[in-house]
Amino acid sequence: MGKLVYAANTSLDGFLEDEDGAFDFAEPDEEVHAFWNEHERAVGTSLYGRRMYETMRIWEDDDWLVGEPPVVREYAEIWRDADKVVFSSTLEQAPTARTRIERTFDPEAVRQLKEGSRSDLSIGGATLAAEAFRHGLVDECVLLLCPVLVGGGKPALPRGVRLDLELLEHRRFGNGALYVRHAVRNPR
Question: Does pLDDT of 135 surpass 90?
Answer without folding.
Answer: yes
